[in-house]
């Protein structure tokens, strides 16, 4: 899939599809800097999320990246950096 | 003195009734829950009947966060646990987190979930297999999910010994309470009605191939030819009598005795070990055979096994010496969920003073059992014996007793 940017809405959709939403959590709210843990996503939920991002966008994410990115903002930035890294090869 | 362990909460998901009220209303009147499989198309399989739990819609009763990571059996177990806790009047958030543990039984794990992921593996590739497959199929997953959802960090685990496991888990719960944990969530909920689970069950060579719901599972009948599998079970809240009294909780009854044995090797001329399990349970409860008001039979529906069970009951209680019933003739055999459901049924029988019936069968008099047939029998029930056997030689027996 060719895309220029991975957005918060993309992440919201993938979290919803792959891991669901916990009781009392509003994914549509201001979650950019909320730790994933507070949003109810533990390491396995992030592993599933990473795996869905990889197969949907045809990229490979470093395993450390998934464990280091503890907020939606950090994960989105990391995915977009990966897009940048992959672009020359794709072009 | 040994701690008295009692049951204070029930959560039931059964093929003839979802929720304790519906289940008991159905069971006391002999309502059948066996029918043609609807969870998949069974037409190309030799066995086509099952006991399926009606009206369970997971998305209506569980947060979406739990749906991608749970098998059907786990979803029912989570809801049954919630009902059981509410029935016991326990709000887990108000408990110290180490005061309650979870010990459930399991027989095969989450087959339906596993089948879905295996299909993705071979049709799309390994990167499409859910990360949750790592635990969603697993034997201990119901215990784990109940523990996580309710914040219960006391001693926990799972017992896997086929149908006997349902009683073994209750007994282990009792053991943990006697060692000092105030409360335990126990019981079992099982489900493997999917093609992969179905062929695994067929391999045991004991599934009935009849397509008539009222003639397929006929324990103690001359026409017995296997059993109908089912899904569901019961979750029980167990605690010390002291804890229950302090809380002013309603007490259903006491888990008064337990015995468990293993059969001699196939071909041995030694006696099967079920009788011994019964004797151990009665001795553990300090109960004489004449004090037992009803036996909930394992009711295999396989002639040789029915014979072994009838002989064991007659050896302990005498020929036609005790009322015997098998409400599981209404639900099919629920694997690890069967015996906890029988324990719950025994407690409801004590409460109402009524023995629920065995349905559909025309008993073979050769077995020498006083079976409660077709209609409930009004009786003072103070003490009940629940029997369960597992494939491969497991025998377990539990004595359930009214508490004054």
UniProtKB/TrEMBL annotation, chain A:
The superkingdom listed in its UniProt entry is: Bacteria
Record-linked InterPro entries:
ACP-like_sf (IPR036736), PP-bd_ACP (IPR009081)
> What sequence ranges are listed for the domain Carrier?
5-83
The region annotated as signal peptide is none
A Pfam family of the record is: PP-binding
PROSITE patterns linked: CARRIER (PS50075)
State what protein this is by name.
Actinorhodin polyketide synthase acyl carrier protein
- Give the organism the record lists: Streptomyces olivochromogenes
Automatic annotation (TrEMBL), chain B:
The segment(s) forming the Ketosynthase family 3 (KS3) domain are 2-402
Write the protein's name. Actinorhodin polyketide putative beta-ketoacyl synthase 2
InterPro entries, per the entry: Beta-ketoacyl_synthase, Ketoacyl_synth_C, Ketoacyl_synth_N, PKS_Beta-ketoAc_synthase_dom, Thiolase-like
Q: Which GO terms describe its molecular function?
A: 3-oxoacyl-[acyl-carrier-protein] synthase activity
Which EC class, in a word? transferase
EC no.? 2.3.1.-
Under SUPFAM superfamilies, the record lists: Thiolase-like
């Amino acid at each position: 899939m060719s895309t220029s940017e991975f957005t918060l809405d993309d992440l919201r959709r993938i979290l919803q599809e792959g891991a669901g939403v916990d009781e009392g959590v509003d994914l549509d709210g201001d979650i950019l800097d909320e730790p994933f843990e507070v949003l109810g996503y533990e390491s396995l939920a992030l592993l599933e999320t990473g795996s869905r991002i990889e197969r949907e966008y045809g990229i490979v994410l470093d395993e450390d990246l998934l464990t280091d990115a503890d907020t939606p903002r950090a994960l989105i930035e990391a995915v977009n950096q990966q897009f940048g890294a992959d672009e020359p090869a794709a072009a | 003195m040994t701690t008295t362990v009692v049951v204070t909460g029930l959560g039931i998901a059964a093929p003839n009734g979802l929720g304790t009220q519906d289940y008991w209303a159905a069971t006391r009147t002999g309502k059948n829950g066996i029918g043609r499989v609807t969870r998949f198309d069974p037409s190309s399989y030799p066995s086509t009947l099952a006991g399926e739990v009606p009206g369970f819609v997971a998305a209506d009763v569980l947060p979406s966060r739990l749906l991608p990571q749970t098998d059907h059996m786990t979803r029912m177990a989570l809801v049954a646990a919630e009902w059981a806790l509410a029935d016991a009047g326990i709000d887990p958030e108000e408990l110290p987190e180490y005061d309650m543990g979870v010990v459930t039984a399991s027989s095969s794990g989450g087959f339906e979930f596993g089948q879905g992921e295996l299909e993705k593996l071979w049709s799309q590739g390994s990167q499409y297999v859910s990360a949750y497959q790592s635990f969603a199929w697993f034997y201990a997953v119901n215990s784990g999910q109940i523990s996580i959802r309710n914040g219960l960090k006391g001693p926990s685990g799972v017992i896997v010994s086929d149908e006997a496991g349902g009683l073994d888990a209750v007994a282990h719960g009792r053991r943990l309470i006697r060692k000092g944990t105030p409360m335990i969530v126990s019981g079992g909920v099982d489900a493997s009605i999917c093609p992969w689970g179905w062929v695994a069950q067929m391999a045991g060579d004991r599934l009935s191939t009849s397509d008539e719901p009222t003639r397929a599972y006929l324990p103690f009948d001359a026409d017995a030819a296997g059993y109908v599998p089912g899904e569901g079970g019961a979750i029980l809240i167990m605690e010390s009598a002291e804890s229950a009294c302090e809380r002013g909780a309603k007490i259903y009854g006491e888990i008064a005795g337990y015995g468990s044995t293993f059969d001699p090797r196939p071909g041995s001329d030694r006696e099967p070990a079920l009788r011994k399990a019964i004797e151990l349970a009665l001795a553990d409860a300090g109960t004489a055979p004449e004090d037992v008001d009803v036996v909930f039979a394992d009711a295999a529906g396989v002639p040789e096994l029915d014979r072994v069970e009838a002989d064991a009951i007659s050896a302990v209680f005498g020929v036609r010496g005790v009322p015997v019933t098998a409400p599981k003739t209404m639900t099919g055999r629920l694997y690890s969920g069967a015996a906890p459901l029988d324990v719950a049924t025994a407690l409801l029988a004590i409460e109402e003073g009524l023995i629920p019936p065995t349905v559909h069968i025309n008993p073979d008099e050769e077995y020498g059992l006083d079976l409660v047939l077709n209609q409930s029998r009004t009786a003072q029930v103070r003490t009940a014996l629940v029997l369960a056997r597992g494939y491969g030689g497991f025998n377990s027996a539990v004595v359930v007793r009214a508490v004054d």
